Structures are given as C-alpha cells and as structure tokens.
Amino acid sequence: MTTTMPPSAQPPIRRGPYAKTAQRRQEIVEAATNVFASRGYHGGSLRDIARQIGLSLTSVVHHFPAKSDLLEAVLENADQTGGWTLGLARTEGVKVAILAQVDFNLERKELLRLLAIVSSEASDPAHPAHQWFVDRYDNLASGLAKLLEYDIERGRVSADVDPELTGRLLAAMWDGLQLQWLLDPTQDMHGQMDAALNRLLQ
Amino acid sequence: MTTTMPPSAQPPIRRGPYAKTAQRRQEIVEAATNVFASRGYHGGSLRDIARQIGLSLTSVVHHFPAKSDLLEAVLENADQTGGWTLGLARTEGVKVAILAQVDFNLERKELLRLLAIVSSEASDPAHPAHQWFVDRYDNLASGLAKLLEYDIERGRVSADVDPELTGRLLAAMWDGLQLQWLLDPTQDMHGQMDAALNRLLQ
DNA sequence: GTCTATATTAGGATAGAC
DNA sequence: GTCTATCCTAATATAGAC
C-alpha cells in the first residue's frame, strides 16, 4: 500500500515514472505471453520471462508480485489485442466476420497456443484462470448468439438456427479447428471453418 | 540391456516378475494419467505420481527412465481404454456411435483433461508427443471419413457431405465441446453434440 | 525391484543495497 | 525500479545398498 502524504508536504509530480512502468509492464506481459504459450502456465518460468527481455527476475516480481498476477495480465491483454471485429459482423454478417477473425488469428500463433494450453489447464477449478475462461466462453457464446439473431432477422442465417446453442457450437468448432491447425499448420483452417459455417448456419 | 547367458548355464525361469512388472507399470501409468491430467505434462511431477501409489520416485524412474517415456505409455494406454466403438457405427450409424462414445467419455473426465492439456502443449514440434497427436488427428479424421462413406452409401448421411473434411469438422467440434464441458460441467455436451451432428450431417 | 541418499538444476519468492 | 544475493522448495536423474 502507498503511504499517505502529510497535508503540509509538496505533492510530488512524477508522470514520467508511471509511463515507464506501464511500458515495462507491457514488455513483461508480452514476454510472458511467449513463454506461457510455449510451455504453459505451470511449465513457464518467471526466470525465462525475465531473461527474454534482459531483466532480472526480481524486477519482474516487482511488477507482478505473484505468478498468477502475471497470467491475469496476459489474459487481459490477449482479449484486448484479439479485438473482435463487431462492426464487420453488422454490415457483412457473422460468417464474414468470423472468417476475417480466423485469418487475423492465423498470424498470431503464439497467442492461440497460449489460449489453447491455458484454457485446458484452467479446467481445474483451482487454476487461477478458471473463472476467467468460464466467463470467456459464456460471453463468447452469448455475443455470437446476438450476432446470429441479427443475421436471422435479416435473412442471412436460417431461422431454424438456435442462436444460443449455435453460438456454443461455433466457439467449439473454432477452438477445435484451431487446435488441429496448431498441431499441423498445413491444415486449411480458413476453408474448414468456411465449410463448417455453411453447414451450421445452413 | 540384458546380458546374454553362457550356453552352459541353466536358463532362469522367471515368469512371475514379468507379470508383476507389467502390473506395476500399469499402476504407474494410471497414476501418471491422473497427475498429467490435473497439472499437464510439464506441470506434473514424477514425485506426485510415485506418491499417489505409495512408491518411491526411484522405482518409478526404474520402470520409465525418462519422463517422456511415461507420457508415451500414458497416451498409448489412453487410446486403448478409449476403445472406439466401431461395431456400433456399422449397425447404427456414425451419429449413434459418436453419441455413445460421448456418453462414455463423460465418465472419464481426468482422461479428457489429460488429452486436452497435452494435445495443446504438443503443438510445439519439440514436444515429445507432437507427432503422436498429429498422427492421432489424421487417423481420427480418416477413420470418421470411412464411417461417413459407409453411412452415405446407406442413405443415413446426406450425399452432400465430404467425408474427409467432415471427419475433421466432427473431431474439431468434439474437442471444442469437450473443452467447454470440462470448464463448466453444467454444459449439456450430449445435447450439443447431437445438435451439431444433425447440422453437420444434414 | 525397491529403497535411501545425493547430485544437480531450477522453480517462486524475499531482503536489502543502490 | 532495478539489482545481487539468498532462502526454501521441488524438479529430474543417478549411485549404490539390500
């Protein structure tokens, strides 16, 4: 906790350090993304993360007192950089939007590896990211459901489609194809997802 | 390596030890399945595995000199116990067979956790199980493709279905729904897979 | 085959100087 | 904020007795 200033003292102006800290934190988060992506959360070490950006272990710990704090920041960051292209879904429909996101993701293999490994690790309720992933799939499914409803209204998706259920199915297919692609990058994930969307949305 | 007997010496008869060894190995493999399932391959330790069956670490190492040897045995064993119900697919169709396997799998959560975690870890080509999982998905996809062809011939599955591609899609959907169910066991995986099969097989 | 004991390396975390 | 140095724990692996 920060100590409170006595009322008489000059309040220190220090906007520089804050900016520097934010930048450092970002560097650490990016390095952690790489390490967790290749070794998992349990398998990845803070030492590796520190080494990757030429920092000491102590400094990393200074910014993120516990390893789980760092994981939390990594996941937050992953969701921000994985900006879901909502606008495209409104104008072009959910299918086009998903395929665009698939193409975008094919360029960020490390991040996908991270999410794949940690999401399965996190199926243990004691895992620090357990709730985060449970919420993530709930939000993903209901987000897709809303987009599907919109498309159904406009006749772009069959009225037979159950939005909530199909949201779950789309998320599942997405993850599953991504795993197979991660294992074997010669797989045509775009084409496979395209075919899946045609079937699932009729 | 075992030393060769001199021709003059009595060949020792020892069938007991072999059987005992096989049983021990099986015990170790089952403990390793639990540990790898809850902590992953990197995160799981040989000590935990030994402790779980009241054995010393050294004895475990005696049977499996390297950790990766143990993982290999665990995966072999997982595929055997996860006996794919081929007979059912011939008589009742691929959809019934898959749903039966889904129900069976819902009782073996630890094994599914293991496969989920290790398969994503193994997307790193340097992982000891990398090739095993690449082959596994190839075999799974082509196996499903054969079953689909059979069902198409008999009119149980739409002739519009591309067997090889759809085999991939089914495997992906299966994995994806399983992950969501592992994270949140209140998910109705049977119902979701049923709906997915109806859509994917028309 | 199994054990105790130990080697060696590495993990997360903390103390205290600068 | 960053460092060196250190603590404590645990990892894989090996040596050698029984």
What does this entry look like structurally?
2 copies of one chain form a homodimer. By secondary structure, the first copy, chain A, is an all-alpha fold. Chain A is built from 10 helices and no strands. Chain A is elongated. The model of chain A is unreliable at 1-16 (pLDDT under 50). Chain A binds a DNA duplex (18 and 18 nucleotides) through residues 17, 20-21, 24, 45-47, 55-59, 61-63, 65-67.
Furnish the topology, listing elements before pairings.
The structure is a homodimer of 202-residue chains.
Chain A: H1 15-43, H2 46-52, H3 57-63, H4 67-81, H5 86-92, H6 94-105, H7 109-121, H8 130-153, H9 163-183, H10 189-200
Helix pairs in contact in A: 1-2, 1-4, 1-7, 2-3, 5-6, 6-10, 7-9, 8-9, 9-10
Chain A binds a DNA duplex (18 and 18 nucleotides) through helix 1 and helix 3.
Tell me what portion of residues of chain A adopts beta-strand conformation. under 5%
Q: Helical percent range of chain A?
A: over 70%
SS class of chain A: mainly alpha
Radius of gyration of chain A, taken over Cα atoms and rounded to an integer in Å: 21 Å
The SSE string of chain A, one letter per element, is HHHHHHHHHH
